[in-house]
Amino acid sequence: MFVGVGSTNPVKRSATKAAIGEMPGLSVDAVDVDSGVPEQPRGHAQTVEGAISRARRAYDAGEFDLGVGIEGGIAEFDGVDGRFLVMWAAVTDGDRVETASGPALRLPDAVAERVDAGEELGPVMDDAYGRESVATQEGAAGILTGNVVSRTDALETAVAGALGPFVTDAY
Prior knowledge:
Layout lengths: L1 E4 L4 H11 L6 E4 L12 H18 L5 E12 L2 E13 L4 E5 L3 E2 L2 H8 L4 H9 L9 H6 L6 H17 L4
Parallel strand pairs: 1-2, 1-3
Antiparallel strand pairs: 3-4, 4-5, 4-6
Helix pairs in contact: 1-6, 3-4
């Protein structure tokens, strides 16, 4: 099976590979594509749009069986205070597109305020927590959960959910 992941971020490739699992002949390739949404997606709709766009563009970029798109964004939930880091994944076989989300993690108020002011979450997390390249390592998920859930773990959940309709009879 040949899978294209619509990002060159190694965490997104690792999360996709982990969600698919071990299988003979599996190839998971990073494909540099544009998400079609702002660098810092806001709201569920924009974040989902970015994931779907990445999946479709990755699929179209090569001879892939599946295209995978993963997008992180900032969103609110009705009835809950605060801003949340949300993760959405999309998988396409060229005909249909399936989506799923990963965990939603409340952002600390100081981080949320900076993102609300227009900054991107990754650099804010680097600055606020004295790290470098958080987005390609443990991610905000790792920092916000004390590394109980890494970014790879969180994204793997989203990809597994979007992959489910392609690999199970549950749908």
